[in-house]
Structure formats: structure tokens, C-alpha cells
TrEMBL record:
The name this protein goes by in its record: Sodium/proline symporter
Transmembrane segments: 6-24, 45-67, 73-92, 126-147, 167-188, 195-215, 235-258, 278-300, 376-395, 401-425, 432-452, 464-484
UniProt keyword Cell membrane present: yes
Membrane topology: Multi-pass membrane protein
Location in or out of the cell: Cell inner membrane; Cell membrane
Function as written in the Swiss-Prot or TrEMBL entry: Catalyzes the sodium-dependent uptake of extracellular L-proline.
Species of origin: Marinobacter persicus
GO BP annotations, alphabetical order: proline transport
A GO cellular-component term linked to this record: plasma membrane
């Protein structure tokens, strides 16, 4: 059993490293090459890179786990995400690709905002960089938690390091492989590995639900439905027991797309604005297939577990348990690789965006304004390692929930950057004072909402997802402050 799994995983790890080494030739010439791949991503690579960096371990662990517990009511999260991603591709992608070049060939989101609002450039770069690093450390930690859970569940009897838990070993192995190809190959390596990882993830989410339903012990859709109805009839209901606030909190996940730096940076790197439409169609098709697979896995995985008397202590490990139980070791290794792909694709993107922001918006801005491209590339590599180690420290608790960590970071980015990105691209009246107000108000609202526990319980009822008040407050802050202040130098008409 172990040898087949390890063969598949070894091949996967080796492929990631080879891609990193291949990309190294093109990743070290200039800062633009290292941070944006020279703005030369093809539509298919840009599309799957955006999708894979978005759909982290929560796609194979967190989302199926939520559906395992609550049934189809949690599927509204996936629907909200798909609609939000589509709107993001239509409204944000072409404009961001065009305007980041128009405004000083910006390589990071903070740099774009600084160039877009020059009178507040320094403040914007500082505030936005702080928000990026703060929330990305938490987001990266969620991916490492997923990696730790995989190794703890799947390899507890195989991997043993004196003085370290299997969970901790899993975190270190996951982080080590990601650092290897991210540090070496930069954005191009991350994007190319994302493409491969996206293909692996989609195949896994087609294979797993099919086998769970129609393989040995599955019984087909009719028997699975009968089993779920016997456990709890609401498991197959989209609305039963779901309040209006609960529904809004689920679909509001889609608001987060407009402000996720690790996703929208792919729009900046696509080869040309004319290829955005092709990338959108590829990306949305991939996302639809993957989300349907994850939803089916969570719901029908519950039916399979009940029918076959499986004791699933942690619902977020249903993918791992079924991978080991239902498949030949070589296929099991492939499915584990799919989970690692989901984890690593997001971690690598987040590490690189954090590193880029630390390099461009702190080091080059305050410490070494005349730093060469080569020096910035090396500093960027060092920052990748530092952010990864901090995230590993946060992820050290094995009881951490992947979906909870992801939801907090997703809301933080969505509220802080989402309204600002939309308005800066589509409302020429927006000014620097309004931009700063939106960043601060959005991030602060999310953190306050979480600290008060209002995302779990609000006014005696169900909690309200923190992205809703954060997004609304940030949008209002930008509009009000912009209209209340004057900065004629920033009212630039953006020609199409």
C-alpha cells in the first residue's frame, strides 16, 4: 500500500521541482519576470492558475466537510463563488490588465494603487502592503493546516520523526516543497505548476464522486438519497433550515473575488487584453466542474460513510479517508497529490504575492530605492521563506479548521480591496483619500466583526459573514470620503 502511494507522490513532487527549475531560466532576469512572469501567460495557464490558486485545500477538505455536515445548504457557498468569479472576469480582468500597464507598469496591487492615486502613493502602498501580508499569513496557514491533516491522516504509520507529531511533519514537508519551486522559479513556476495542479484537482473531483456513487458499496444515486433521507431529510434540501441571513452569508463569498491579490494578479500577467475572454471561458468551465465535484463528494460521501459504517471523526478528512479506502495505492497517491496540488497552488501564490509586496512596497520603497532587479529578486526569495515560516507557526495547532481560516482571510481581502479595486477601475472620480479610507475601514470592520463573534451569532440569531458588513462599509467609506475631499490631480479620465 505504502509503496504505491509514495511512487505517485514522488512523481508529483519531482514534477513540481522540475517545473521550478525550468522556470528559473526566465524568472531571474528582472523583477517583472520574477513577480509577473513577464506578463506573458497564455489564456489556459492564466485561467487555471487563477482557479487553482483560488481553490485551495478548502475545495477538497473544507467545502466537502461543510456539505458532509449540513448537506446541500452549504452548496450556496460554491454557487456564490462561481457567480462572483464570473463577474470578476468580466468587470475586473480586462480593466486591470490594461490599467496596470497604463499606470506605470505596476507589478503589484499596492503599486497600481499608488500609481493610480499619486498624491497618496506612499500611504496607499504602506497600508495595502500591511493588509496583504497580514491576511496572507493567515491564508497561507490554512493551506499548511490542510497539508498537515493529509499527512497526519494518511501517513501516520509511515512517517515518524522523533519529537515531532505527524501533523507537524506534514506541515514541514508541504512548506518545503512549495518553497523549493517558488523560491527558484518565481511567478512563472507558480503559474505553470498551478496549471498542472488545476488539471489534477479537476480529475480527482470527477473520479471521486463517481466512484463513491457507483463503485462498490455506493449503491447509486437512488440508494444514496434514501440513505441521506433516513439520516436527515434536510441534507438534500437547498433551503430547509436555511435562514435569509444564512443564505446571504453563503452567497456573499462571491464578493471576495474582487479583492483577492493572488487571483487578480493573474489578470495583470495574462499575455494580452484580447485573450481575457478565452481565459475566462476556460477558467469558469474548470471552476464549475470542480465545484460540482466537491459538492457531490461532501453530500454523497456522507451517504457512503453511513451505508458502510465508517466513523469519520473529522468531516474535513472525508476526501482523505475515501481515497485510501476505495482505490488502488497508485490511484490513492494520485488523489493525495490532487489534495497537495490544491494546497500548494494556493500557498505558492500567496507566498509570492506577499513576497512581492514586501520587496516592492517596503524594501524598494524605504530601504533601497536604487536596488537592482537582481537584488530585488533575491530579496523576494528571502521574503518567501520568511512568510512561509511565520505561516507554519500559526498553523501549528492541529485542531485548526481549514474553512474557518480561509473564510477569515477571504473576508479580509474581499472587504479591504474589493470595493477599492472596483471603484478605482470603474469610477474615475475616486481619489487617494477615499482609497485609504476604504482599505482601513474594510479591514478594520472584518477584524472587529470577528473579534466580537458576530460572524457566529448576531443579535440573538445566526451569525453574519464578516465580508458583508466589511464590503458595504468600505464601499460607503470610499464614496463618502471621495465626495467630501478634493484632489483635482487624481480625476483622470481612463480612455478605453
Amino acid at each position: 500500500m505504502a509503496s504505491g502511494v509514495w511512487i505517485s507522490l514522488f512523481l508529483y513532487f519531482a514534477l513540481m521541482i522540475v517545473i521550478g527549475l525550468y522556470a528559473m531560466r526566465k524568472a531571474s532576469a528582472t523583477a517583472e519576470d520574477y513577480m509577473l512572469g513577464g506578463r506573458g501567460l497564455s489564456p489556459k495557464v492564466a485561467a487555471l492558475s487563477a482557479g487553482a490558486s483560488d481553490m485551495s485545500g478548502w475545495l477538497l477538505l473544507g467545502l466537502p466537510g461543510a456539505l458532509y455536515v449540513t448537506g446541500l445548504a452549504s452548496a450556496w457557498i460554491g454557487i456564490g463563488l462561481w457567480v462572483g468569479a464570473l463577474i470578476n472576469w468580466v468587470l475586473v480582468a480586462p480593466r486591470l490588465r490594461e490599467q496596470t500597464v497604463h499606470y506605470g507598469n505596476a507589478l503589484t496591487i499596492p503599486a497600481f494603487l499608488a500609481n493610480r492615486f499619486p498624491t497618496k502613493a506612499l500611504s496607499l502602498r504602506m497600508v495595502s502592503a500591511i493588509v496583504i501580508v497580514l491576511f496572507f499569513v493567515v491564508y497561507t496557514a490554512s493551506g499548511l493546516v490542510a497539508g498537515g491533516k493529509l499527512f497526519e491522516s494518511a501517513f501516520a504509520e509511515i512517517i515518524s520523526v522523533p519529537g515531532m507529531s505527524d501533523y507537524a511533519v506534514g506541515i514541514l514537508i508541504t512548506l518545503g516543497v512549495v518553497l523549493a519551486y517558488t523560491v527558484v522559479g518565481g511567478f512563472l513556476a507558480v503559474s505553470m505548476t498551478d496549471f498542472v495542479q488545476g488539471c489534477i484537482m479537476m480529475l480527482a473531483l470527477i473520479i471521486m464522486p463517481a466512484v463513491v456513487l457507483w463503485g462498490e458499496g455506493g449503491g447509486g444515486y437512488a440508494q444514496a438519497s434514501e440513505t441521506l433521507n433516513s439520516v436527515n431529510p434536510t441534507l438534500l434540501s437547498w433551503t430547509e433550515g436555511l435562514t435569509v441571513i444564512g443564505w446571504l452569508s453563503a452567497v456573499a463569498w462571491g464578493l471576495g473575488y474582487f479583492g483577492q491579490p493572488h487571483i487578480i494578479v493573474r489578470f495583470m500577467a495574462i499575455r494580452s487584453i484580447h485573450e481575457v475572454g478565452v481565459a475566462r471561458n476556460i477558467g469558469m468551465s474548470w471552476m464549475a466542474i470542480s465545484l460540482i465535484g466537491a459538492i457531490a463528494l461532501g453530500v454523497f460521501g456522507r451517504a457512503y460513510a453511513v451505508r458502510n459504517g465508517l466513523d469519520i471523526a473529522d468531516p474535513e478528512t472525508i476526501f482523505i479517508v475515501l481515497s485510501e479506502l476505495l482505490f488502488h495505492p497508485l490511484i490513492t497517491g494520485f488523489l493525495y497529490a490532487a489534495l497537495l496540488a490544491a494546497v500548494m497552488s494556493t500557498i505558492s501564490s500567496q507566498l509570492l504575492v506577499s513576497s512581492s509586496s514586501l520587496t516592492e512596497d517596503f524594501y524598494r520603497l524605504f530601504l533601497r530605492k536604487d536596488a537592482s532587479d537582481r537584488e530585488c529578486v533575491n530579496i523576494g526569495r528571502a521574503c518567501v521563506v520568511i512568510v512561509g515560516l511565520v505561516a507554519a507557526f500559526i498553523a501549528r495547532d492541529p485542531d485548526s479548521q481549514v474553512l474557518a481560516l480561509v473564510s477569515n482571510a477571504w473576508a479580509g481581502f474581499g472587504a479591504a480591496f474589493g470595493p477599492l479595486i472596483i471603484l478605482s477601475l470603474m469610477w474615475s472620480r475616486t481619489n487617494g483619500a477615499g482609497a485609504i479610507a476604504g482599505l482601513i475601514v474594510g479591514a478594520a470592520t472584518v477584524m472587529i466583526w470577528i473579534s466580537l463573534g458576530w460572524n457566529a451569532e448576531f443579535m440573538g440569531g445566526p451569525g453574519v459573514y464578516e465580508i458583508i458588513p466589511g464590503f458595504i462599509a468600505a464601499f460607503i467609506a470610499i464614496v463618502v470620503v471621495t465626495l467630501a475631499t478634493k484632489d483635482a490631480g487624481e480625476y483622470q479620465h481612463i480612455e478605453r
